[in-house]
Amino acid sequence: MGLITAIGDSAAKNRMALSLGKCGISTLELFPSKYANSLPCGEIKIGTQILAQKLNATEPGITRTTLLALHAFEEAILDSKLTVEQLSSFDTALIGASTVGGMCLTDELYMDAQKTENGSEYINSYDCSSVTMYLQQRYKMAGTISTINTACSSSANAIMYGARLIKNGLAKRAIVGGADSLAKFTINGFNALHILSGERCTPFDERRKGLNLGEGAAFIVLEREEDIDNKKVYAELTGYFNSNDAFHPSSLSDEGFGPYLSMKGALDSAKLTPADIGFINAHGTGTENNDLVESRAMLQLFTTPPPFASTKSNIGHTLGAAGAIEAVYSLLNLHYQELYPGLNFSQPIAETGLMPVDLYTKTTLQHVMSNSFGFGGNCTSLIFSKS
Amino acid sequence: METAELKQQLKKQIIEFLNLISVKPEDIKDDEPLFGEGLGLDSIDSIELIVLLGREYGITIQDPKEGRKILVDINTMVSYIEQHRTK
Amino acid sequence: MPMFYIHQTSCISPQQTFDSVDISVLHQPVEHKLKVIEPVATGIPMGTLRRMSKAVRMGVMAALPLLQDGTEPAGIIIGTANAGMEDCFYFLKQMVDYNEGLLTPGNFVQSTPNALASQLSMLKQNHGYNITHVHLGLAFENAMTDAGMMIKENPRNNYLLGAVDDIPSYNYILNSLAGWFKKEPFALEDLYTLQTPGSIAGEGTAMFLVNGNPEDAIAQLRAVETIHTEEEEAVKQRLKYFLEKNLINGEEIDVLITGENGDSRLLHYYLACEEMMPHTTGIARFKHMCGEYPTATAMALWLGCYILQKNPVPSHIIKKSFSKKNCKTILIYNNYKGGQHSFILLSVPGCF
User: Fold this and answer.
1) What's the pLDDT score for residue C121?
2) What are the residue ranges spanned by the domains of chain C?
3) C172 CB contacts (<8 Å, ≥6 apart)?
4) A78, C69, C78, C167: which has the fewest C-beta neighbours closer than 10 Å?
């Protein structure tokens, strides 16, 4: 596995930062926006040029989103010791996810769209599939390649699709994940919805004021059980389910039917009961709507929910990358048998009384659930189990 | 501007702004609730209407919850516009 | 075992493919674009319709006839590259016009490509699997693969499988800048003979109701294969492997439907695949009907189903003639922008 977020450019650094309760949400420094000082974000403080040089990816037309993806992807293949031959084999799938894709270059895109000739170097890079396409080309990948965009649940669905390709015999291994970078487009979009907080977000707190956007990327290598041999294994993906809330384009239904169904479906697919889940990495964006509805759904399914927290208090909401990043965090939970503190919490939501984990805890964990919910009511839950 | 004239103008603006296909200004009653029943508007529309008040009448509303009190029906919107408009 | 059986199809394209199908007469492009004949939007509540972009609206209109009579699919599986693009640019324009000031969120919310799949789930109160593949020229192929796996896992379930892409003006500009559309004016009839770079911009949507039940099916979708490469030899090898793996001993392809699109730079891929077919195989083309867009293979699949149903085949699609009576097996080969290739194999149900 590999990842890069506002709290670290590797899995090891992320684990350290999570353990120490570090928060990567701060004032925007790397690109101009009217909101740079008023809306804090989980920005990765490495300039795009520096990233490109570090990764030896200086060809024209490469966007920040692609570079973040490449960073996480390279760490993942190094960690899993995949060979060049394995990467370019017919039975290695690559499933990416992104919502912003090349649209992080908002201004360039707008300029290009006004032209009649001489498009910029990014003319073929605005699409959200451009990120996956670059990885495919760089590593000459020849298996099933897809990009999924279901808004904020995109990369959770990428993980699920990759797992199903393996299960159905259409791939031997799948490299799955997602990437998104901060963009004027999303900052203005979420701001227009009045769901961005001017302070660091406070998931599951009664006085929560909204979410912070973040950026990052994560990739995971999934392999069949029979191919594991002596390889390093972090955990097993035992359950997954996607369901639609079918209520509203940008908010969840009061009763949280979609979240309930996705969590329930994931339990059923893993053949587990609610009591088996030791920790939930909640979607927990910090908005009024999400945290209340997710809490209600957890209460309905679990009666007494297991320990839970939202790592969005560390890194912000990384949109299309969130599901994959939080999956990696779940793997860290399981592999190291530890829980990381949710930050900035002080007062439970009056109606539900639920309190996220707020201290670093060594514990015994068998199964961890990770939730990702997106616009259009798209709800996905994944379950990882200690192998 | 006369109140009646303002009401008519506002109705036209709402229809255009929210792309209310096939609704005519005379279909919107002054005291008919804008949300839930009546026009059946939702939370996204309430934010769009706040933007409308900002762009057309120079009215700034920071808190969408505050907006809900103003965006009850045409009457409440018009009386708020008359008191607070800056353009 | 096939991936799935197709039970109903629906298509909105620049030709008369919706309601009463008549593709004998070619509809011509307008301003260098082949634009869909959009049906009057009915059956969609006003509150929902007013927020729909053209792509979402035509996708919903194509899907609704397949969801009548209480048909409740267990999932909605969509492939699209551009759905949401139109709203995306409206929002971008607002950002620039109002200098990141007071913006309306409606366009932003609808700018996500999963707007179609989610609008359908909302309209039909469908809580099932809801996915949107956006991998450009292979978005629909991945949606097919996804549907195939879903049906293998749950053979009794129905799934709504489809694709949509439109030509928002900004998208047309970007693709024109990148040289993907012919600059010079030309007659549609000359698309394949001009031998110049670029194709014609197009759009369309096709929807399929699919499941694991061969009874009364229109067609069986036997296999889908994709490859990313720009090397002709790699495409040929993959096709060879695909045919060896999927054709039964002695079986031949009756019709090859190719995505030939008039772009002189891409023609050699199509010719190479045509050369690999036995001399008995007929060849059909469809891009003059719908233009070039990332999910055009959904239109090709619709056309394949149309041919397998023994409908009248118009001469304008035929490049090399074939026996319409005995047409049982069709291969679709398409490539998008020279780098994304796909093979789709379909047959009448029950013959293999």
Assistant:
1) 96
2) 4-211, 219-347
3) C33, C181, C201
4) C69
- CATH number for A75: 3.40.47.10
Q: C219-347: same fold as C4-211?
A: yes
At the fourth CATH level, the homologous superfamily of domain C219-347 is Thiolase/Chalcone synthase (3.40.47.10)
Does B46 map to a domain?
Answer: yes
In a mutational test of the A interface, the residue from C228, C244, C246 whose CB has the highest number of chain A CBs within 10 Å is: C228
Q: Residue A107: what pLDDT?
A: 79
- Does B42 touch chain A if contact means CB atoms closer than 8 Å? yes
- Is residue B25 assigned to a domain? no
Mean pLDDT of C123-145: 97
Chain C interface test: which of A94, A118, A135, A150 (most C C-beta within 10 Å): A150
User: What per-residue confidence (pLDDT) applies to A118?
Assistant: 80
In the predicted structure, residue A8 carries a pLDDT above the cut 90: yes
pLDDT (tens digit per residue) in A257-282: 999 999 999 999 999 999 999 999 99
pLDDT in tens, B47-71: 999 999 999 999 988 777 788 889 9
Cβ-Cβ pairs closer than 8 A, A with C, add up to 188
Residue A115 confidence (pLDDT) above 70: yes
Which residue segment(s) compose the domain that A324 sits in? Answer: 2-385
Secondary structure of chain C in HEC code, one letter for each residue:
CCCEEEEEEEEECCCECCCCCECCCCCCCECCEECCCCCCCCCCCHHHHCCCCHHHHHHHHHHHHHHCCCCCCCEEEEECCCCCHHHHHHHHHHHHHCCCCCCCCHHHHHCCCCHHHHHHHHHCCCCCEEEEECCHHHHHHHHHHHHHHHHHHCCCCCEEEEEEECCCHHHHHHHHHCCCECCCCCCHHHCCCCCECCECEECEEEEEEEECCCCCCCEEEEEEEEEECCCHHHHHHHHHHHHHHHCCCCCCCCEEEECCCCECCCHHHHHHHHHCCCCCCEEEECHHHHCECCCCHHHHHHHHHHHHCCCCCCHHHEEECCCCCCCCEEEEEEEECCCEEEEEEEECCCCC
pLDDT tens-digit map of A319-368: 999 999 999 999 999 999 999 999 999 999 999 999 999 999 999 999 99
Domain that holds residue B56: 3-20+30-84
Residue A93 distance to chain C (closest CA, Å): 11
Percent of chain A at pLDDT > 90 equals 90
Active site residue A248: no
| Closest by Cβ to A251, choosing from B43, B51, B64 | B43
Is A152 a residue of the active site? yes
Task: Indicate whether A254 pLDDT > 90.
Answer: yes
Task: Please give the pLDDT value at position B68.
Answer: 82
Q: How many domains does chain B have?
A: 1
Q: Which of A152, A201, A335, A367 is catalytic?
A: A152
% of residues, chain B, pLDDT over 70: 100
Distance from CA of C119 to the nearest CA of B (A): 15
For an interface test with C, give the residue of B45, B49, B52 to mutate (most C CBs within 10 A): B45
Binary contact (A248, B47; C-beta < 8 A)? no
The C-alpha of C179 sits at a distance from chain A's nearest C-alpha, in angstroms, of 10
pLDDT of amino acid C51: 87
For residue B49, the domain's CATH number is 1.10.1200.10
Catalytic residue among A41, A71, A128, A317: A317
- What is the pLDDT averaged over residues C249-266? 96
Q: Does A316 touch chain C (CB under 8 A)?
A: no
C228–A145: do the CB atoms touch at under 8 Å? yes
C170 contacts chain A (CB < 8 A): yes
Annotated catalytic residue within A71, A283, A335, A367: A283
Q: Chain A contact for B47, CB < 8 A?
A: yes
Residues of chain B in contact with residue A251, where contact means CB-CB under 8 angstroms, are 43
Number of domain units in chain A: 1
CATH number for the domain running over C4-211: 3.40.47.10
